[in-house]
Amino acid sequence: MTEICLTFAPDAQREAPLRQAAYRMAGIAGCQIDFVAGRWSCRLNAPPREDVTAEVLRQRFLAILNDENLREQIEERTSKLRDVIVALAFGALVTDQKTGT
């Protein structure tokens, strides 16, 4: 079994992206996330496979975590614009239904 443990400071890494990355790793490795001694601890366990070394596991998890962090940042930065677009789209549908056009 390949096992690694990564730790993150809570001011540098939020919990939600860690959990999303753990979910996306489910086909490769199990991941246990705990908050220990003021830090996030992520323990990844992969069944024995030739193509999954500790370094591959670490790199893959960090790449997925980076992707999840970017997704979270984009969501935060674009949420107001997205809400306006959705409101305009549904507002146009309501207007079309009322006028029959």
What's the helix-strand series? EHEEH
Q: If helices are DSSP runs of H or I spanning 4 or more residues, what is the number of helices? A: 2
Q: Which stretches are poorly predicted, pLDDT < 50 over at least 5 residues?
A: none
Which secondary-structure class do the elements indicate?
A: alpha+beta
User: Could you tell me the radius of gyration in angstroms?
Assistant: 20 Å
**Secondary structure: helix percent:** 55-70%
Side by side, the strands of the main sheet go 1-3-2
Main beta sheet, described?
Answer: 3 strands, antiparallel
In round numbers, the mean pLDDT is 91
Distance between the termini: 63 Å
Number of domains as seen in the coordinates: 1
* The level-1 CATH class: Alpha Beta
CATH architecture: 2-Layer Sandwich
Bulk shape: elongated
CATH topology call: Gyrase A, domain 2
Could you give the count of β-strands? 3
DSSP strand content = 15-25%
Brief summary of the model shown:
The chain is an alpha+beta fold.
